[in-house]
Amino acid sequence: MSDNSTTSGEFAELHLLQEKISKSSLPEDLRKKAQTMIDRAALSFKYHSQFNQFDMVASYIDWITVLPWQERSEDILDIRIAKSILDKNHYGLEELKDRILEYLSVMKLNMEQAKKDPQKKNHSFSRAPILFFVGLVGTGKTTIAISIAEAMGRKFIRIPFGGMGSALDLRGESRVHADAEVGQLIKALRRAGTKNPVILLDELDRVAEHARGDIMGVLIELLDPEQNIAFIDHYIDYPFDLSEVLFIATANNTNNISTAVLDRLEPIQMPSYSDDEKTIIGKSYVFPKVLQSTGLTPDQLSIIDSVWPTIVRPLGFDSGIRTLERTIDGVCRKVARQIIEKKISKIIITEENVKQFLPTW
Known about the structure:
elongated, Helicase, Ruva Protein, domain 3, 3 domains, P-loop_NTPase, five-stranded parallel beta sheet
């Protein structure tokens, strides 16, 4: 009796897997492969009432049926919109913004050519060098990448390379291993839900020393348009076309990145910010965002201009704006507490009281 109930339950699960395959946009030969796996499991249940690899089959079919084999987002590629988004999110950096707008212009021209002549599709923007932002911590590398994705109307996914200890983290592990997993690339595509997201390869210089050679080898394949058109994750074991993905890479420096990988990248140096630039960024970009995130309004908190040099450099020189963001966040939290506890309606930060609101390190 229990055997029959177990078998019927597993047949119900097989039916659900069958539905996933039917509703998905799988390539035809992969669909046949998945169908064969289901048929083999069904025969095993029918004659033996058990199938030791059922969980593996179910997990595999779940993965392949949710991947965006055909789904893609519509690119905007309106240079005026892109410029307004870059200006809205980033102060200064005019040379860097010009490089990005030039890059997007080339992408648009190539896509228009591809629409006119489908045979030129393989010569589209994916063959352009990959943007590679190099700079110190806090100089805006990640936020620039997010702005590019926003300007293009694409999903944005970040893959952190800091401490990555194996190339299998990127490429996945074969299903013959008991705890095999898909790689970070396939996971990123699943999260994006499209086959043309912006994927940020973050901190390429911080991979583990013992795995650097293998990881750089996978990166060469990822960033080469001749190879990434048929990228194979060991777990999925079927080629996935990554040619429509816009890869952007970042690093603090290029010392630990192989020459072959650098050859496929277009390095763009992220400049450090001067105190004057930080003052403008703090007043016009960071402060309004932190006010909103802490529930404060401009009527409840204001900072006089002469105080900003103290806020910008509380401890000494810092190349990026991370310390500035933390300082402003700390000021706003202290003000929020005083407004709640002391029932104060408004606080003005002046040279006389600024030190009581600055965070202590």
